[in-house]
């Protein structure tokens, strides 16, 4: 009933391919950021005139082109939003067409096995023992961090799954850097622990979680009869790109027995690189890891990944039985994703990564990471040459920069930043580090070139006032 005629399908598919190609080939010709007017966009949506399917297509294409920050643009120096690789886009399109339902293994055995294979491969790369690896693809890092919090709590308080918090006499608390991603706080809210259960640990002058402050806060909590059950190390802080030192945290883990979660949503990608994987040294001893393929492996959103070295904990945390779910694979040695994850109906998220690995190999993806780190180093060097002050120190291609006159001038730096964005040629942001305002730029696109960096420096130069 909703199918189109073959003739019209072909017409629209051709149009689709042409518009894909137009966007892919000429991303760098688009203005990076749109002018923001809610009124204009609302009117665009409601005042449409559509007489054919082709019109509908054109309307949507216009909306997507005109009213979005084009994160795949090589001059988008923003948050960790990559340009999607061809493999990633093709995979997501295939997923939409075939629409495998992965809740139960027997409905989508290929898809479920592909994801299990990828989780194993990544777990091994992170240094986990093959037999102990479990995990799941998630909507994103936020869901992966939530999964980690639930597993950590279930591990420490085994009665939790059936009895809930009221059955736990302890008062559970979580420790992470004050620079940790706010999805940790959201997870505390969702689990019912509450945001106050998250203890922000100070960062040192290197902007990493200060291990002495972590130790002090843990002791304080124990004195207050609280139970520190989870410590989160951020491997690639969203704002500054710094990597918390896991090896230091491990000495405290031995003493206090907390679950150690590594939020490597962004920085986890360097595990593929022979040159940079040592930056994550110690991660092999973590109890769980968050990693986002859609951050730095250049696949479309969202492709979060949760990996744990406790093979039973996900089943213990989320397992249940139903009458209505398919039982075709009963008696087989398989795991139904709905029995060990948060999601129920499940999209084939892993295909984006699988097809990328088939296209480029893990080595190809590693090369793209190494290249972007190199371009990041070039950006840092050019900024210094142009007289900018640099506030963060990290091997990852994230740079926080500014000047003395901006440090306590919120309005000044914001209007400078808006001026830069207003050129339509690039996108950067403002980030506050230890009460000081800085500009932030990040390389997150495998196509960003030295020429693009030179143009950014020039725009910054011209925007000086
Ligand atoms: C992006 C990010 C998250 C959240 O991940 P989403 O995929 O946006 O849900 C969590 N932690 C860190 C360190 C991140 O950079």
Can you describe what's shown?
The chain has 465 residues and is an alpha/beta fold. The chain has a domain at 94-356: Type I PLP-dependent aspartate aminotransferase-like (Major domain) (Aspartate Aminotransferase, domain 2, 3-Layer(aba) Sandwich), CATH 3.40.640. 43% of the residues lie in helices and 13% in strands. The strands form two sheets. The chain has a seven-stranded mixed sheet with strand order 1-7-6-5-4-2-3, sandwiched between helices. The protein starts with 5 loop residues before the first helix and ends with a helix. 43% of the residues are buried. Pyridoxal-5'-phosphate binds next to helix 6. Pyridoxal-5'-phosphate binds at residues 80, 140-142, 145, 181, 183, 234, 236, 238, 263, 265-266, 292, 302, 304.
